[in-house]
Specification:
With 177 residues, the protein is mainly alpha-helical. It contains seven helices and no strands.
Length: 177
Amino acid sequence: MNLRLRYPLARFSAWEGELCRCANRVGVRPWVCVPLQVASRLGDGVFWYALMAALLVFDGARAREPVLRMVLTGLICIALYRWLKGRTSRPRPYQLYTDIRLGTAPLDLYSFPSGHTLHAVAFSIVALAWYPVLAPLLLPFTLMVALSRVALGLHYPSDVIAGALLGALVATTVIWL
């Protein structure tokens, strides 16, 4: 690696590791950990499947297009997420830092990008394009999912930011189709 890049990257990595440690010290407290674990587990997909089902039940035929776009968004996100995880193979924070306690079991081996955040942002943007009234529910939930990934020792802040940016890109592309 180029010497001019190595030092700034090492400094960024150390800074990001310290952010993970700080978030994890707060995130492992029971009164914080339990809500974060719940948000993380719901972000596995349960929340989004339930939302799509609820939209179909309560809004009938008008919900077909947004739900189909959410399904398309999910398929694209899964393909992108798997491709990137396989290429980057970035270890998770708890694997590198012995003082970071794992708050919940990971779904896979690698850290980059945060698939939970990728999906949460993407699904929220698509859903809100048709149902802006859901913002008070979806925005806090999406934020909780993103925060949970760092606080529970599963991701670095850059994984979460990358997941959010990719999710926004996928969602806006699917909306424009």
